[in-house]
Please model this.
Amino acid sequence: MKSIKKNTREDGAETKARLIQCAGRLIADQGYDRTTSKDICRLAGVNMAAVNYHFGSREGLYQAVLDEVYHYVLSPVEIETIYHMDIGPREKLMKLLDLYVKEALFSESWQVKVSIRELINPSDVFTRFVESYIGRKLTPVLDILSSYLGLPAQDARVPRAFLAALSPFLIFLLSGHRQMGLVMYGLSKRDRKEKMEEADLLKEFVFAGLDRLKEKWKEKEK
Model:
């Protein structure tokens, strides 16, 4: 009897995982609005009732997909590991940028593609998800940035500087995938060495901007 229950639980967990993977792949290709529960169940090879049974609704399934994206793209574990390293804030920021470049330039995962779709055209589900989860990632990142800038963590200039520093890398994130690669000067067709050279140039650009902001704010405080 215990064996039967165990197998049932394992089958259920396997079905849930398969539904998340299949939903993620479809949504990465065609978007959340165009992806139906029927499409997902067909790809997963399960009964149509499986989505509601395991996730309550199609929206519940997408929340599970976004949770997978949250833990895959710049995972909280990676961020926390860098945060607690015994190195200076500049070195920590550099390591965070390196993680971002790795995802933006070289990952073809559905998780990254879903995150790109949501950056370009955020869904209502994603907007609610961001409010609940993304702050957990941002807190240690903004703390590192505030240390580098010499500002209190709660200073309003810190998140503004973060957005300014991140924006050049959106070019890489967008250009590494499909049609956006044609728009963003063909970056997606370049080889690894060329991409890394341009990524290094952008990192220098970001730190030059942050250093200029530090100088500007120090001058104002005199």
Notes: The longest helix spans residues 192-221. DSSP finds eleven helices and no strands in the chain. The CA atoms of residues 145 and 153 lie 8 Å apart. Confidence is low (pLDDT under 50) at residues 1-6, 178-187.
